[in-house]
Structure to design on (458 residues):
């Protein structure tokens, strides 16, 4: 146990500390990451007098946007190293009331001291709606182990998390994504944005199969369409292309698929989304950024039914699940020719979405304006933490010992499966291991084992 953990545990037990800070964080793992989710919420909080002095934004000090953001908000920025629990952050955390996280950053830390006592309400605000990819909903980093509450856009999305993780209605806050407030309904520029998501079956050592995939063939057919190029040029429309960063890591993809297009880097995607009049995507959750403003979305199923999908279970599950959503969506096409025809239709109609599709959009979202205001108001009015104890820890005799030992800042308790251990100043006191036929306890002095006791259960 290092001095940072001792400091945090000691401060966490001080009853006189007034918790008032709101800490917000986006992706701190990628130095090129686009910062538009909780940063959009942070900027709104900075315009509200009652939140201005108590809201802080956590950012990777190596992020390409760090200097610009730190210059604009010099007193409310907390710089950190990737995955590090640095002192500037610790000093604010011991007085934090809310931790708002869009990218599961908290999972990079040991969450015991942060969550266990329930003094900080940890909130997963999301960076995209988990609507098309149920395979992602096996991710423990967005489970109740790390978060007390989660922000949803509607009741449909809430039911998915209740099914996969056991979140209940008290854990749920209905609002939406903060960045939606930044989206423009009627952009001045004529821009079309095409964005394609990642494919696990092409990511994991199977690059040689890229050129045989439907993913590759259909995207190439679309981007190289002479009919589309002539039409866009004639109407003075720009086409920008983005692709998930896991795919653009491949030199083959950049060279063969994206060499002759206006390729957008991750950090610029937010800016292009705001300016674009229409989106073309396979099944990126980015579609909801456009649908909330009734801007046309074309779903191009580039690899529907491709046998290569079966090489990866998540890809196969996503392929099946996406097709099940067809009745809830619109403008679904399977060939580049049909996509180009649909583009022409919307351009000639000045990018106006049909009324029946607008009705579907309205049904999906609970709030479509002032998302950030609704988020904060609904969060503050929601019930307090449902549980202050991490899953798997019960208040039996072991739980009592756990509470007594963890009251002291230099003590530490851990439980992994059938193993339990207690430490003082980083040295183990005793370890308990439960097996099928009995329990074994080892006792230590200054970290050295001195005695072993075994007890049979029958």
């Amino acid at each position: 146990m290092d001095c940072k953990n001792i400091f945090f545990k000691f401060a966490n037990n001080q009853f006189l500390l007034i918790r008032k800070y709101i800490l917000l964080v986006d992706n701190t793992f990628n130095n090129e990451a686009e910062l538009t989710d909780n940063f959009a919420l942070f900027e709104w909080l900075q315009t509200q007098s009652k939140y201005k002095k108590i809201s802080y934004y956590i950012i990777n000090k190596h992020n390409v946007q760090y200097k610009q953001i730190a210059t604009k908000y010099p007193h409310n920025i907390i710089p950190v190293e990737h995955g590090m629990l640095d002192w500037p952050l610790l000093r604010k955390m011991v007085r934090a009331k809310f931790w708002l996280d869009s990218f599961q950053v908290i999972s990079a830390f040991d969450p015991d001291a942060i969550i266990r006592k329930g003094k900080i309400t940890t909130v997963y605000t999301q960076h995209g709606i988990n609507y098309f990819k149920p395979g992602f909903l096996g991710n423990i980093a967005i489970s109740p182990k790390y978060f007390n509450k989660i922000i949803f856009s509607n009741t449909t999305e809430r039911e998915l998390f209740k099914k996969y993780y056991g979140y209940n209605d008290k854990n749920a806050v209905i609002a939406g994504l903060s960045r939606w407030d930044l989206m423009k309904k009627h952009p001045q520029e004529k821009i079309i944005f095409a964005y394609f998501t990642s494919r696990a079956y092409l990511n994991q050592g199977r690059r040689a199969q890229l050129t045989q995939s439907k993913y590759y063939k259909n995207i190439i057919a679309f981007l190289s369409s002479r009919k589309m190029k002539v039409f866009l040029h004639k109407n003075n429309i720009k086409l920008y292309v983005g692709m998930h960063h896991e795919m653009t890591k491949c030199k083959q993809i950049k060279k063969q698929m994206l060499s002759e297009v206006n390729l957008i880097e991750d950090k610029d995607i937010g800016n292009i989304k705001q300016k674009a009049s229409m989106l073309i995507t396979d099944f990126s959750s980015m579609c909801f950024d456009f649908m909330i403003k009734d801007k046309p979305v074309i779903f191009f199923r580039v690899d529907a039914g491709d046998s290569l999908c079966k090489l990866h279970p998540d890809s196969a599950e996503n392929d099946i699940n996406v097709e099940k959503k067809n009745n809830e969506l619109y403008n679904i096409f399977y060939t580049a020719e049909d996509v180009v025809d649909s583009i022409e239709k919307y351009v000639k109609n000045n990018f106006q979405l049909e009324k029946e599709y607008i009705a579907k959009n309205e049904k999906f979202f609970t709030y479509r304006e002032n998302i950030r205001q609704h988020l904060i108001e609904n969060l503050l009015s929601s019930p307090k933490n449902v549980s202050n104890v991490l899953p798997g820890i019960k208040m039996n005799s072991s739980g009592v010992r756990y509470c007594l030992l963890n009251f002291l800042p230099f003590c530490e308790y851990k439980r992994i499966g059938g193993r339990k251990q207690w430490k003082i100043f980083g040295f183990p006191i005793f370890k308990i291991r439960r097996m099928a036929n009995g329990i074994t306890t080892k006792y230590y002095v200054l970290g050295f084992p001195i005695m072993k006791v075994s007890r049979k259960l029958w």
Q: What stands out?
A: The domain at 184-364 is CATH 3.40.50 (Rossmann fold).
